[in-house]
Write a structure and sequence with these properties.
alpha/beta, Spore Coat Polysaccharide Biosynthesis Protein SpsA, Chain A, UDP N-Acetylglucosamine Acyltransferase, domain 1, eight-stranded mixed sheet, globular
Length: about 425
């Protein structure tokens, strides 16, 4: 599912949909669920898209190719006008319903529905195996969350055999949340203990048996969490699969910022170095990065970067990033650029007063996200400390306490914020 607006992630979604947002220096968010499927041995993958899809489509088309003998594909299904409907997708269930004709042209018994914008590594085949073993009609992947941290999530009450007895989408009443807490018996089975009571929060990952999905969507319901799942209670066998690995719903600018910077830790909570379950992405054939006379502390650096005589602390530097001399970056996620400029182009741009791609000389930046293909001149200072959320000059926006330089922004030399 890759069709949402991602409004809470604005301005990173100003010119792209949420699954297309760059991640970890060289990936896109959509690479995570697609890689989870491929690592599970599932290679018939549909990506349902709707808003600002151009960069997402381009990335998928360049990244995922299967040989002619495997029968595998990653197929993009955008919202389209038909004889039955001329509207956009009106929710997750509506999106799946309107594409059933495409799914049904392939033989299958089960359908796995994944979110296109979460950071996690899951053996999706294990979820399907449990679904089959328990003879469930629907299996919902869930994480055990402390009651104090479940705001905005769909919660479920389950019996000790993992059968779902109640499902509430984003409850706010503390009494309702308290009543959904997992039993002591189930709590004891979990590998990780917690001092606080916990309940199971839906990850938005579902396994449906084929006929059950068709019957569940034979109506006008628009959303799985709000309508379809609650409507199946008491009519179908709903089970929960408890996932105990790292999972981050990157729904806000702050969550995205923190999740990226966490990757620079010596032992990050999400490990891109796990060779048993690699994360795939577009093969760009970029040169190795050049790091000249720099001080670097806990930094992830993507391919094809040029960093000269600078100090970087706790940063993620994306592909094709160019940093001029004597820059100081701390707690910065820099997404890089889509192309290189030649030295002649850079000289010509400086002559007109336009900064080249990347950072100029003597820049100081702290607590910021620099989106793709931004142009930042010499002697620029951008520090988030104490800045209120809002719009600032030169396409700079502070959101969730994070300073964001928008995609393609041009910040003149000498600017200070």
């Amino acid at each position: 599912m890759g069709g949402g607006r991602g409004s809470r992630l604005f301005p990173l979604t100003k010119e792209r949909c949420k699954p297309a947002v760059p991640l970890a220096g060289k990936y896109r968010l959509v690479d995570i669920p697609i890689s989870n499927c491929i690592n599970a041995g599932y290679n018939r993958i549909f990506v349902l898209t709707q808003f600002l899809t151009a960069s997402l489509h381009r990335h998928i088309q360049k990244s995922y190719h299967f040989d002619a003998f495997s029968g595998g594909f990653v197929d993009i299904l955008s919202a389209e006008q038909t004889e039955k409907s001329s509207a956009w997708y009106e929710g997750t269930a509506d999106a799946v319903r309107r594409n059933m004709v495409h799914f049904n042209s392939h033989g299958h018994e089960y359908v796995v529905i994944l979110s296109g914008d979460q950071l996690y590594r899951m053996h999706v085949d294990k979820v399907v195996e449990q679904h089959i073993a328990t003879k469930a009609d629907v299996t919902i992947a869930a994480v055990a969350m402390p009651l104090s941290k479940v705001e905005g999530l769909g919660l479920m009450r389950v019996s000790d055999d993992l059968t779902i007895k109640e499902f509430v989408e984003k409850p706010k009443d503390p009494a309702i949340i308290e009543g959904l807490a997992i039993s002591e018996t189930l709590e004891a089975r979990l590998e990780k203990s917690c001092a606080e009571k916990r309940c199971l929060a839906s990850m938005g990952i579902y396994v449906f048996s084929r006929k059950v999905l068709a019957d569940a969507l034979n109506n006008t319901m628009k959303d799985f969490g709000k309508e379809v799942i609650p409507s199946l209670l008491g009519k179908a066998k709903l089970a929960s699969y408890i996932f105990e690995g790292y999972w981050e719903d990157i729904g806000t600018v702050r969550a995205f910022f923190d999740a990226n910077l966490a990757l620079a830790q010596p032992l990050p909570p999400f490990d891109f170095f796990d060779r048993s379950a690699p994360i795939y992405t577009h093969a760009r054939y970029l040169p190795a990065s050049k790091i000249n006379r720099c001080e670097i502390d806990h930094v992830v650096i993507g391919d094809g970067c040029i960093v000269t005589n600078s100090t970087l602390k706790h940063c993620v530097i994306g592909i094709r990033s160019v940093l001029g001399e004597n820059c100081s970056l701390e707690d910065v996620v820099m997404m890089g650029a889509d192309y290189y400029e030649s030295e002649a182009e850079r000289v010509a741009l400086r002559a007109t007063g336009t900064p080249p791609l990347g950072l100029g000389r003597n820049c100081r930046i702290k607590g910021a996200i620099i989106d793709k293909s931004a142009r930042i001149g010499d002697n620029v200072t951008l520090v988030v400390d104490g800045k209120a959320d809002g719009d600032y000059a030169h396409d700079i926006i502070v959101r969730d306490g994070v300073l964001c330089v928008c995609k393609g922004a041009v910040i003149p030399s000498g600017f200070t914020l």
